[in-house]
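User: Predict the full complex structure for these chains.
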Amino acid sequence: MATVSRYVDISTVDKEAKKDYIDRHSPFVYCEGNAKKGEKFQVRVQMGKEYKHPDDFDHYISYIQLFDGETLLGQATYMAGAQGSAPANAEVIFTIVPTRKHLKLTAMSYCTKHGLWESDPVEVDVAE
Amino acid sequence: MATVSRYVDISTVDKEAKKDYIDRHSPFVYCEGNAKKGEKFQVRVQMGKEYKHPDDFDHYISYIQLFDGETLLGQATYMAGAQGSAPANAEVIFTIVPTRKHLKLTAMSYCTKHGLWESDPVEVDVAE
Amino acid sequence: MATVSRYVDISTVDKEAKKDYIDRHSPFVYCEGNAKKGEKFQVRVQMGKEYKHPDDFDHYISYIQLFDGETLLGQATYMAGAQGSAPANAEVIFTIVPTRKHLKLTAMSYCTKHGLWESDPVEVDVAE
Amino acid sequence: MATVSRYVDISTVDKEAKKDYIDRHSPFVYCEGNAKKGEKFQVRVQMGKEYKHPDDFDHYISYIQLFDGETLLGQATYMAGAQGSAPANAEVIFTIVPTRKHLKLTAMSYCTKHGLWESDPVEVDVAE
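Assistant: Here is the predicted structure of the four-chain assembly.
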């Protein structure tokens, strides 16, 4: 079955190559901690924090998805070479419109060589 | 985190509503058991076997992906209403070109109300 | 602006390189001439008829869309290397459910080097 | 064939309904006028400037693409209901990495009822 890999705090990882591998494949979700119901709210998703991912023919980030719980809010799809064919931290900013009281945002991304990766969840309170 | 639900043999499930729920959300992979390296090979993915899925505004099948192990081979994306706004078994036939000795095909699909679902794997031997 | 290139009958084209260029970038729609309202109907889209398209890092078929008039029925998205990294005629079979009296099917595809290409339309009568 | 509609300056349009129709279906590209080669550059695409687009079952913005000339840089795909099921100006911010001397950015979007729409081009000079 298609494994979904998840981020592990790389400060707990010994080997440099493994830190690099985990970090560059992990999507990270960045946004304010509070949103307002029915109003636009920006959520930035970035691939990797300290390490960059290649943008090669057989090894590139093909898509980034943003979920609220089980609900997909949007998908950004990229072509090989979209990052200038150089190692990079791919990112996209989704503008969402919260309709529930609480958001539990996670990002899922797909690397063409190392499959699906999911971020830690980010919780957002939504005021009326 | 975004849960990936998986098919359970519905003959082992008691309640009719649960059989329906599981079956209509599960993608099934259909193909020959043998392929030839470098030659076109058709893989059909169908949503549900005995039950149909709604095609409503807040409840429809939004995409079907085909994986070989961890590798995404293709994604079919649909709009709300693509199944004629009536319950249906959405399906797509991907034509793939095997390059490895063995395929382990799984399908992943996304329902806008009940999230990600993954099929059982289907194994295919690839002759030179 | 993003140009949408269209198929030209290559028997009217002199130069071999141009025949190849046009044919391998053009999606072709294949299906029966008659469908039945509310019933599944298969539509095959194939890239190129007589010539194959490369599947290289900076030159591959990234997606194939199927339209009925102005309405998008589905999109198949591919990654670089999906055709085995060898020249091929990418294809996908969409199963659609007609709800109108008449279909006017066209396919639109995207090559990462040569942009958007659209097929000739294929007309289908839909019986009640 | 699938028509690609294009923005017309709505100050030249008489009827209010037509101003609304054109504006809410048109993607607009916003970014700085200068970028630097190999460095991240943010491009915001927003649907409509003065009017909002519905987010209904049979009438919603399904995707927004960003092109540089004929080259697709990224696609943001949405599900019905992604804008909170209320009229909205859908938007996405793509982070791109320019590799050429000049960018000619256009956005293409797809409304499930009124088809493909393309923005005016935005030119960006890219310094070494």
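The mean pLDDT of chain C is 93.
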